[in-house]
Amino acid sequence: MGAPKYVLLSYDEGAESTGEHGYEETWALCQDAADLFADPPPPTRGTYELLGCAPEGNLRTALACARADGSALLGPLTLETLDKTGGGEGEWRLEDVRVVADRPCARDLSLRDVTVEGTQSDDNPDDCPQCPPLSPGYRILGADGEPWGGCRDLAHVQEDRPEQLEPSLRLLGCSPRGALRAALDGGEEDLGHVKVVRIDTSGRPVQPAAEGELRAWIPSARGPGLVDLTLDPWTERPPLAAREVWELWGEGRPSVPNRWADCDAEGRRFWLDTALANHTHTAPDRPPATVYHLDGSHITDASGFFCALGEAVNGPAGYFGWGLDALNDCLRGSWGATPPFTLVWHDAAIARACLGVTPHTGRRPPTFEKLLAFLAERRVEVRLA
Questions:
Q1: Cα 382 vs. chain centroid, distance in angstroms?
Q2: Which one of 41, 79, 153, 274 has the fewest beta carbons within 10 angstroms of its own beta carbon?
Q3: Is residue 65 classed as helix, strand or coil in its secondary structure?
Q4: Residue 20: CA atoms inside 13 Å, Cβ hemisphere, count?
Q5: Handedness of CA 354, 362, 359, 377 (dihedral sign)
Q6: pLDDT at 364 > cutoff 80
Q7: Which of 273-282, 327-336, 356-365 has the lowest mean pLDDT?
């Protein structure tokens, strides 16, 4: 019988929401799980109309190209909501925007109604922005805040989204105990709400995997006394990349650096999630002026930089930010290092050739030069080696 990979914990929504600790009970150890991993569906592209638009800059250029070619790629677009005085009071973004049509505005023939297709940014607070009373509309901005004109209103042409049917999660070879054992022995139909956590071979938690409701069980073919449980998750499933990363952490926190190096881009991003989930704040920051060595031999993308930086500061499988905003938070202290300090970047030529050069229709990852400037502004001296 193989070592269990998951632990099943009792779940209390009220205690979870208030941050209460120590309420969870172990209900089962599970050898494996089926239908656990799934990448989220690609974001749905929507069609939007910028009504009463006065285009400028790249938006005006894209309009001219769309009239000639049928459509034109524009890139990221930001709508800044204006208050009644014309001041900005919030932003709403579309990624990978393509201009597909325009026509004269019925209310003002000097303006245009512009039809675009795009994908909503994950950072948007709402599905569609709303202007406050007496607002003149929106200011249109490009990826770097450059002015692209304005529009008086925004209309969203909603597409039909087919419902995605997902299979239930199956927990295999489970050894029930406690309240779950009693519920199974008593023939209860309501088995309860649970949290599934990935564990290593020593039984230490690695990372939460899913939360949901147990709704069925059958005897397991994996051994006498074991059961297979069916769970309907209410949280997103871990991405496919989690399977590989959790195997790398399967015998405990990796003790040698660069275990992440063979992961693809998605795997490196999830590695950073796992490293963050396993970061501890018990050790104080090293003193300012400490010298850290960054192994750049595998920094071929932005996630690789942050994987390597985490290990430079906090050792193998360490964490020190997953993006620029998170790195900025780490540089404020209590994450292992306090500026000013020195970062010796070995094999820097690899990152210089790779970072930020892959074409992206959405927000472009930071370039090598931008990372250097970012660190310098925050009192981190980088020495290229």
A1: 28
A2: 41
A3: helix
A4: 11
A5: negative
A6: no
A7: 356-365
Strands 26-34, 6-10: pairing is antiparallel
* CA 156/CA 45 separation, integer angstroms: 11
> For residues 238 and 36, what is the distance between their CA atoms, to the nearest angstrom?
7
Mean pLDDT of 19-42: 86
Round to whole Å and give the CA distance between 30 and 7: 6
How far apart CA 53 and CA 63 sit, in angstroms, is: 11
CATH architecture classification, 243-384:
2-Layer Sandwich (3.30)
Distance CA 33, CA 229 (A): 9
User: How far from chain centre, in Å, is Cα 23?
Assistant: 28
**Residue 16 CB partners (closer than 8 Å, separation 6+):** none
153, amino acid identity: D
DSSP 8-state secondary structure symbol assigned to residue 334: S
Q: Do residues 143 and 134 lie in contact, with contact meaning Cβ atoms separated by under 8 Å?
A: no
Strand bridging mode 45-55 / 380-384: unpaired
pLDDT (tens digit, 9 = 90+) per residue, 138-179?
A: 999 998 899 999 999 999 876 655 566 788 999 999 999 999
Phi, psi of 328 (to 5 degrees): -60, -40
CA 12 to chain centre: 25
**Per-residue pLDDT reduced to its tens digit, 278-308:** 999 888 999 999 999 999 999 999 999 999 9
Among 114, 96, 81, CA closest to 44: 96
C-alpha 261/C-alpha 300 separation (Å) is 9
DSSP E strand stretches across the chain: 6-10, 26-34, 45-55, 72-82, 88-104, 112-120, 138-141, 147-151, 153-157, 169-176, 193-199, 205-219, 227-233, 291-295, 341-346, 380-384
Q: pLDDT tens-digit profile of 177-220?
A: 999 999 999 999 889 999 999 999 999 999 999 999 999 999 99
Tokens 């139909």 -> residue: 189
- pLDDT tens for 226-271 read 999 999 999 999 999 999 999 999 999 999 999 999 999 999 999 9
Residue keyed to tokens 């449980």: 229
Give the per-residue pLDDT at 45. 86
The label of the residue with tokens 């250029």 reads 61
Straight-line distance from the first to the last Cα atom of the chain, in angstroms, rounded to the nearest whole number: 49
